[in-house]
Amino acid sequence: MKNNIDVPDLSPTGCTVIFTYLPDTDDSFPVAVKLVWDPRDPLAVRLGFAHGNWWAVGRDLLEEGLSTDDTAGLGDVRIYPDRVFDDSVIIEFDSPDGWAVFRAPRDQLKEFLAATSRPGVDPMVELDAWLEREVPAVSPNVSVPSLNVAGIGIGIALMLAGVTLWMFRD
Known about the structure:
By secondary structure, the chain is an alpha+beta fold. The chain has helices spanning about 60-65, 105-115, 125-135, 155-160; strands at about 15-20, 30-35, 45-50, 55-60, 75-80, 90-95, 100-105. Helix 1 (about 60-65) packs across helix 2.
């Protein structure tokens, strides 16, 4: 007798959205940005720019940035309402390598998040499954305490395991 097991589709989902690059000058121009969500890493959305530059943005940060009247994000990525165009948000990327500001269409980002949401699935349960699958056991005799996702413990554990969450290449 064969078991019928419901295996979820673990293929990444993506689309291309046109952002507007807003340099310090008045010479703004359109930029095609790939949005990719991978159910194996359900808490992040990847934004792919020209020349293989990728940024991983937390889904929760993107959701907050699309719905707040203030600025969402304190670190390398900040999202806030566009004060000129009501149907857009501003996304700022800041790193040691440079700074860039883009205008992004609010509705298309919301549609992407809705299309990649998994109702009834707890992202923390998926994160636990991902950690079990991706973080190698140090030793069968060593017990690993549970990690507090709100703290920095998970980042340290992933760095020790050689897993990089925020740098991607084509």
